[in-house]
Amino acid sequence: MLKVISLLKRAEGLSHDAYAKWAVEEHVAFARKLPGLRRYTVNVVGGDDGPYDSVHELYFDDEDARAAAFGSEHGKAAAADASAHTSSRVHLLTTEHVQL
């Protein structure tokens, strides 16, 4: 299983509360349409002064599934929505190793 961890910083002028609402209630609609997405979690960071405002975790069967999802019409729409609401995004492709 491939896990994509996305670290997002909200766009300038967007309040923390408005950003949290977007991340948890609005952007998730895009994720639900991604083909091949197995699991999706959103973690909103508390406070206004951290380097990131949310951490998103997206699970795919493998790299091919991830590439197909982000290359799809829905993947491109999700990326455009994220770009409109964030000032920076970092994506880490990882393999999860559950220890406990």
From TrEMBL:
MF terms in GO: oxidoreductase activity
NCBIfam families: EthD family reductase
Record-given protein name: EthD family reductase
Top-level taxon: Bacteria
Domain EthD positions: 12-82
SUPFAM superfamilies to which the protein is assigned, alphabetical: Dimeric alpha+beta barrel (SSF54909)
Family matches, as Gene3D superfamilies: 3.30.70.100
